[in-house]
Amino acid sequence: MVEGLSLMFLLVSLLFVSRVTSRNFTIENKCDYTVWPGVSTASTVPLSTTGFELKKGEARVINAPTSWNGRFWGRSLCSTSSTGNFSCATGDCGSGKIECSGGAAPPTTLAEFSLNGPNGQDIYDVSLVDGYNLPLVVVPQRPQSGQTCITIGCVVNLTETCPSELQVMGNSSEEEPIACMNACQKFKTAEFCCTGEYSTRQKCPPSLYAKNFKNECPLAYSYVYDDATNTFTCSSSPNYVITFCPPITSNTTNNNRSSAADPPFPAQPSKETNGGTKRQRVIGMTKTLKQL
Fold first, then answer.
1. CB 213 within 8 A of CB 120
2. Which of 176, 242, 270, 288 sits a CA distance of 20 to 30 A from 62?
3. φ and ψ at 229, to 5 degrees?
4. Is pTM, for the whole model, over 0.70?
5. Residues 37, 68: contact at Cβ < 8 Å?
């Protein structure tokens, strides 16, 4: 009888420990096409997978240690060559396989997490610093009340409003854009990359290109010094749902881009900071995310 109670106590203890020392990430694909999520771990304990296929409508749950740090992203337009090399038009990780051995090649929309950080809080964000390739939202489960543990992300198709000089084009005969670079990646100057003499927040305000990202996706990290308003925290140790192409997003590229929707970008690179803000659209998008 004593041995039975001891065994039961051990099982209950192990169950309790597993609950407080691990988290779940649910990765959902709501796109009208297959997405191949990638995972990059910055902490010492990697996850059980670094990349996998997720067909339309599918979801996968990934367990993570409570102190995990890393990134998730989506790869699109992937294929395997006749020699067995796996590659993707966007978000490719360069491994030649579905499983990744490193990070994503930009431009790529990123979901970044640092679990159980200072004061036991999770720190998370959706980043466009490396550009944009897929709409993505992060939804904390069982969030505590407050303004810092909320649904965040980019729910619009930024390829529709991406200036022509930042567009990454597909290989189809229609030559539709499949991703949108950030200005640093495109122009490689200290002014856009916030390096050298522009390496401080004061000397590197958001460019007009970064403002476009911000206007379209107010709850995503738009450039390197956007962390003050677009890094979020949760203190309730929640699980997270990461959704590609959430239902309110147009899941396919709009073939007929409306010129009225295009932001007023200059023909040459500019650091102009007094462009329009599209304030009503920003407010509306923020409200929509909070309703998810």
1. no
2. 288
3. -115, -10
4. yes
5. no
